[in-house]
Amino acid sequence: MENKNLRDEIIRRSGVNPTKCMRCGKCTGTCPAFDEMEYHPHQFVYMVESGDIEPLLESKSLYRCLTCFACVDRCPRGVEPAKLVEAVRLAAVRQQGNNHMTANDVPAKIEEDTPQQLIVSAFRKYTK
Amino acid sequence: MKFSYFPGCTLKNKAKDLDEYARKSAEVLGVTLEEIEDWQCCGGVFTTSKDEIATKLSSVRILKAAQAKEQALVTVCSACHNVVKQTNYAMQNDSEFADKVNRYMDDGIYDGSTKIYHYLELIRDVIGYDKVKEKVVNSLAGKKVAAYYGCLLLRPNTVMRMDDPENPTIMEDLIKALGAEAVVYPYRNECCGGYVRMENTEFAEKKSNTVSNSAKLAGADVIVTACPLCKYNLEKSGSEIPVVYITELLADALGIKEDNNGK
Ligand code: SF4
Ligand code: SF4
Q1: pLDDT on residue A3
Q2: pLDDT in tens, A97-115
Q3: Closest C-alpha to ligand 2, atom 5
Q4: If you measure CA to CA, which chain B residue comes closest to A103?
Q5: Separation between Cα atoms, residue B169 and residue B174, nearest integer Å
Q6: Residues of chain B whose C-beta is under 8 A from some C-beta in A?
Q7: Is A67 in the pocket of ligand 2 (CB under 6 A)?
Q8: Which domains does chain A have, with CATH numbers?
Q9: For chain A, N or C: smaller number of CB within 10 Å?
Q10: pLDDT band, residue B263 (cuts 50/70/90)
């Protein structure tokens, strides 16, 4: 998909209006995955807004977001950055052959007492 | 009083305690939880993308089943609650989404009108803490209990509306009603690492340890949660204090814990 189209599509699917962002960085300050992300939530907002999507699609940050909604609740402008992270992640894993996890990866990662919730949640976030 | 009840897949397997103690305690408190027939897994996490339809159908069918019985729906697992509630909110507020979903419903549309209670809300809003106090036979006086909310019960607050998202009291109020001391600590509404454990165990352990250490430092001798994944993550990451389900604490105070056969 061409960049402008992809940008518009991601914004549409997320329901987020990135132009509301005032770049205060509060979302990033409250993000528990901060240390693990090369692009932080406020950067997702800015980069999507400016159509700089490719680096995000390739970034491990997509799989480090915990969907904890801290950035959503604590953004003073109601931007909801997590929804953009999700829309970009979906754009990545929906590409054929681009699932971030496969069923074959699971046995090595689970134990006798692993809750089903962990496995289904990871599948929902990392695969399509 | 009867309510429709959605336990979810984990409560049927690795988190049987959460389920069994919830049902039995509810009976003692005068509420019967009637399990929805034929439910399917909610998927564990809500997908916020507006064009994700299929992943939300199981939640809509659960909500619809409760509506057909003209009952409110009760959930216990924090994750199920979050997914079902966010789905219901989308059915109420996003007509394009609702329209697409309803095309899959061959037995009439769903209008988003089912009322959803998390078990904690059922106790606060329907049963009442006074009734709980009345039924306590084994007071937990002297126990220092740290409520762990995590993220799923409280956020996003525009949808969940359970409590003040930054200073909740719903679990502490129940803990106090059971006679125990509620320990408030800084990380009670921060994330345990969630499903990212599958991706990066070390990172998830760091998140979990921050939470359990915070509770321990505040003087707690036990952490309570309503989420199987929070419990697992905290325990596996080496929490120095035990982590139990809030329903187990409740059942203990109500004197029905030894009746439980499940694990
Ligand atoms: S908290 Fe909100 S306004 Fe501030 S940088 Fe993040 S998205 Fe922008
Ligand atoms: S939802 Fe994701 S991006 Fe937002 S604060 Fe949580 S981990 Fe960070």
Answers
A1: 75
A2: 999 999 999 999 999 999 9
A3: A31
A4: B198
A5: 9
A6: 8-10, 13-15, 41, 43-52, 55, 77, 79, 151, 154-157, 165, 190-191, 193-200, 203, 207, 227-229, 231-232
A7: yes
A8: 3-95 (1.10.1060.10), 101-128 (no CATH)
A9: N
A10: very low
pLDDT tens-digit series, residues B153-193: 999 999 999 999 999 999 999 999 999 999 999 999 999 99
**Of B246, B247, B255, which is closest to residue B21 (Cα–Cα)?**
B247
**Cβ–Cβ of B10/A117 closer than 8 Å?**
yes
- Asked if residue B21 lies in contact with residue B251, where contact means CB atoms within 8 angstroms, the answer is yes
ipTM greater than 0.90: yes
Mean pLDDT of chain A: 95
Check A66 against B199: CB less than 8 A apart. Answer: no
Q: Among all chains, which residue has been given the structure tokens 């997509």?
A: A62
- Global pTM? 0.96
**Rounded-to-integer distance, Cα B166 and Cα A74, Å:** 10
- Summarised one tens digit per residue, pLDDT across range B56-72 is 999 999 999 999 999 99
- Residue A4's pLDDT is 85
Q: Which ligand is nearest to the CA of B193?
A: 2
Q: How many CB atoms lie within 10 A of CB B99?
A: 10
- Residue A60 DSSP SS3: helix
Domains for chain B: give ranges and CATH numbers.
2-120 (1.20.1050.140), 135-261 (3.40.50.11810)
What are the phi and psi torsion angles at A62 (to 5°)? -60, -30
pLDDT digits (tens, 9 = 90+) for A42-61: 999 999 999 999 999 999 99
The two structure tokens encoding residue A11? 């914004």
Best mutation site among A14, A17, A23 for ligand 1 pocket (most ligand atoms within 8 Å of CB) = A23
Contacts of B148 (CB under 8 A, 6+ apart): B188, B192, B211, B215, B223, B224, B225, B230, B234, B243
